[in-house]
Design a protein that fits this description.
single chain, eight-stranded mixed sheet, globular
Length: 466
């Protein structure tokens, strides 16, 4: 390997080479069975005699750190002493807004009702592998440039058709900006619209990563309560300049925003000249009822930015999302995309276009919807049968989770969940203020049907014990 050795300063050259190689072995940069540069080659690069390098190698060999193999070279033969190599700690500190813990998922457990994760076993892996391979042919790699920051042209056109057919979103290819998931879309919108002190209204309870990204950009984030019809428009602060909502399947409660409330929200935004971010995060999976009109399709004033993602329909690891914004914001959003990551993964974007154009995404969504509908019903039936005096299901007909309201008094939900050994979130964990009521949010995308009943049984036992 091309190992870097510095000979700056004074002193014995052999000793300096020896100490730098020894340090690399001790802290793990050179690992067991890794081949050192040939002594002749390293001597040439360092502009020293071969004997100088050979002497350093001989000292390492005498101490048992390396060994020579006839006709092969010199190899590290001692396992590294576990000495952590770290960059200097320094005294530089970040802005206080970044002094927050990472949103890390819980460790694996036997019974996981995690939220927002699809079932990887449903992912069309063979199809995706074929489409990716198709895009890695020499002809598909030309031209070798960075490409359009807004995304692969064929993917933008395919996404516009997909959301036009499946969600009645009004958009053409020129309106679509492809992002690395919905979270990057929120970050780009914030960069374009948020200044220090900008008032951003979010749902309470709601999606905390959205709140976080707005806060890191300097916004004053205000939680607005949610009721049975969605965001309470009358509770919006008059200073609001940006509103973030999940109207099709409120996160985490799961209730859709009523048509009357949608119209009221759009009217409020028009009167106060406010921009609305509509996060349509998992509405593809609808089990009953007619799909509701997105805010974007009802918007006649160009105030709604529609954000979508393929993290739920496909896999989160693909980092494929998009937004559809009014034409007046498009140039600024594309510029913000260019200065952050330029254009994302063009290979995955082109594969997504083929998946959509060949009708394979729609087929996959139909198959996944049937599977998730069965799990939704399985959990709902168990709640109605066994938890009737403990938890009340919140009406929901879409998505990858089902929320419940605690009806039994005096139960410490967090403590009961910990005792159960089951991974599940509470409604209160999505609130920044004490919630008006609490309950459990049961995700079913990442748990197999055969584990659902036993996981619920353990929850039931723990709740009754409380």
């Amino acid at each position: 390997m091309d190992f870097h050795v510095s000979l700056d300063g004074r002193g014995d050259l052999t000793a300096r080479i020896y100490h730098q190689l020894l340090a690399a072995i001790l802290d793990g940069r050179l690992t067991t069975d890794e081949r050192l540069p040939a002594s002749r080659e390293l001597a040439r690069r360092l502009d020293v005699s071969r004997n100088t390098v050979a002497a350093a190698y001989e000292r390492l060999a005498a101490e048992g750190f390396v060994s020579g193999r006839a006709g092969a070279g010199t190899f590290v033969c001692a396992p590294p002493v576990l000495r952590t190599r770290r960059a200097p700690s320094g005294g530089v500190q970040p802005r206080s807004v970044w002094e927050l813990p990472l949103l890390t998922p819980p460790g694996p457990a036997e019974y996981e009702f995690r939220i927002g994760v699809p079932d990887p076993q449903l992912f069309p892996l063979a199809t995706w592998r074929r489409l990716i391979s198709q895009e890695l042919r020499p002809a598909a790699l030309r031209p070798a440039d960075y490409g359009d920051p807004a995304g692969h042209p064929s993917a933008r056109a395919a996404i516009a058709r997909h959301v036009g057919v499946s969600r009645s979103v009004q958009a053409g290819p020129q309106d679509v900006l492809i992002t690395q998931g919905a979270q990057q879309a929120l970050d780009l919108i914030g960069r374009v619209l948020i200044e220090p002190g900008t008032c951003v209204a979010v749902e309470e309870p709601g999606y905390r990563p959205a709140r976080r990204v707005f806060q890191t950009l300097g916004a004053r984030v205000v939680g607005v309560p949610v009721d049975g019809e969605g965001l309470d428009v009358t509770a919006l602060p008059h200073s609001t300049q940006l509103i973030y909502v999940t109207p099709s399947h409120q996160f985490p409660l799961g209730t859709p925003m009523s048509l009357a409330r949608r119209c009221a929200l759009l009217a409020w935004a028009e009167r106060h000249e406010v921009v609305i971010i509509e996060d349509d995060y998992d509405s593809e999976f609808r089990f009953s009822d007619r799909p509701l009109e997105p805010l974007q399709s009802l918007d006649r004033q160009g105030r709604v930015i529609y954000v979508g993602s393929f993290s739920k329909t496909l896999l989160p690891m693909l980092r494929l999302g998009f937004m559809i914004a009014p034409a007046s914001l498009q140039p600024a959003l594309v510029a913000a995309k260019q200065v952050t990551d330029w254009n994302g993964d063009r290979t995955a974007q082109a594969a997504l276009a083929s998946l959509i154009d060949e009708g394979l995404l729609a087929r996959h969504i139909r198959k996944a919807t049937r599977a998730y509908a069965a799990r939704h019903e399985q959990i709902g039936s168990a709640l109605r049968r066994d938890f009737v005096d403990l938890l009340e299901p919140v009406p929901s007909a879409a998505g990858l989770h089902l929320s419940t309201r605690l009806v039994a008094p005096g139960i410490d939900l967090d403590a009961a969940v910990r005792r159960s050994g089951v991974i599940v979130r509470t409604v209160g964990s999505f609130s920044t203020a004490p919630p008006r009521w609490d309950g459990l949010v049961l995700g079913y995308g990442g748990i197999q049907p055969e584990r659902i009943d036993e996981g619920l049984r353990r929850l039931l036992t723990s709740l009754r014990a409380a």
